[in-house]
Predict the structure of Palmitoyl-protein thioesterase-dolichyl pyrophosphate phosphatase fusion 1.
Amino acid sequence: MLSCSSFLIFFLFSWVLLPMKSFAIPIISLDKVRLAINDGASEQLPVVIWHGLGDTPTSFTLTEVSQRVQKLTKGAVYAIRVGDNEFEDIKAGYLGKLEDQLDEVCDLIGNEDSLSNGFYALGLSQGGLFLRALAQTCDAAKIRSLITLGSPHSGINTIPGCSPTNLICKAVVHSILGLGIWHSWIQNHVVQAQYYRTEKQYDKYLENNKFLTHLNNEVLHDNYTRNIEKLKELDNLVAVSFERDDIVEPPYSTGFGWINETTGENIEMEDFVLYESLGLKDLVNQGKLETISFPGRHLQMRWGDFDALVLKYFKDEKEEKTELEESTRPSNFLSTYFVSPLVSAIDGTVDYLHGKSLFPEKRNFKELTMRKRSIVTPEDSEEVYPYISEFVAASNVSEEKGPKSFANLAFITIFSHFFYHIDDMWRSTLGLFSLIPQIIGIIYLTVMFTGRELDTFMQFGGQVVNEFINYVVKVSLKYPRPADIEYGVGYGMPSSHSQFMGFFSAYMIAWDYKYRRSQCFSMLSFAKYAIYLTLSTFVCSSRYLLDFHYLTQVVYGYMIGFGVGLFWVYLVGKLRSLGVTKWLLSLPPLQFFYIKDTIPHSKDNHKRQWLESKQFKNQKSN
């Protein structure tokens, strides 16, 4: 719901916890993935993986990816981790100078004997861009084949985090970018700024950007020819794109293309500047560069397709059948995505409940609306992609069943968005239910600035923390939304709307129990609780019935929010008992705005104020 705000909160939060040692060059390590299979004696070339933004080598998804690659290739697998721990690694994805990070990784690769004879490389999201940078600049990085999944090779023209339809978020981000993106400090410390590119300020981009302009040969520099020659040393460069990528903008960047920033039209790789400047034309003519497109969103692909890529480009000795072939054939659509074992287990629980008829039956895979797209040549499809024909057949549905055109859809965007068919009253009503958190947010702001009660500010602060937790969990699990929703954006687990309502319900009920315990069992209180839970039911149901989320994402979102809400009531109470709130009220800014903390300490506050007002009017009339 607050994807843009969450990104900014995470950015600022990183600086609050940033230790002084982080101003030095971070320590970068290569973590070797070890399994109980022939991992050391094999002559198979190893694979090096560089993860994407907000991820770590030990996350659920990356762990499964690494283990899967190792089982398929029967060789060693290394994962690049930046920093001393997982938090440092996540932070390094946002903050740091890329040239320094790449130099350190290059040195470590050079010191790793098992990589001296060459290796394969797999880059997820921005990790693919960094691996290509290694291939072009690091002599020790003898990469044979490089696969990049959703990597912004041509750059990005906005910070990741805004949905395509969230106009307010986009306006805020573009304003921030316009004010400071070209500043030397930003260019040397913010990772995404170092591959930010816009043709609307192309002169400033060429003048101030020192990473992407050199990497893509958009300016003349000392290593211009070397960049081209080093790319030619690759046996294969495979750029995988996702048709509905909602993280990389423009999404065509993942296939070495761009977008006409005036008309919005796609600029194909062959018509873009990199085709000549980076020598991509020669790679295409030599059969070394392949661009592949999948129909999902960012990093959404079937395990069978992923396995096929690994076997085709990373396997030294081709085998007719692998030990994973049977296990990767999908039984339902959910299990085929790039998801973690934990989320798969959650989905399995819901499958069990569906089998017990406790929930409505899930939609069949063949009912999901996916666009047909050829990703390999016909002669290769049977051999390399054994499940493609099944996938295409399942996705070849009538256009009439798909979403209506953008002109026939109405939408509202206030920190969030929803779509509905104008002639469908049911979906319109459900869409309005999705706006309940926004309405509550407006009420928060209104009460804060009219009542000026510290308790309201603390509750609102808890919602901000709740949103941050939602963002961290989403980027860690990377669980997708339903594939048949055209405009749902970002990852889906857990639902932020449901988590918001879970926090709101828990906080309001627990607050009553803590500060109004003598009244919390009255009929009036039960009526209030029923309203909170009814509103929560409306919101959660709308997110599921409108196909913005799977049922698991809604249920777990509400549970997480409810838990955070209970904890936040306890935490605020603890701060009061320790005198922290009293200290806060003594601060000059809070005194200037007359912030007070009276609600928890006075019962029937509204009735008392009403009586005082009535008494004052009577005295004035007399």
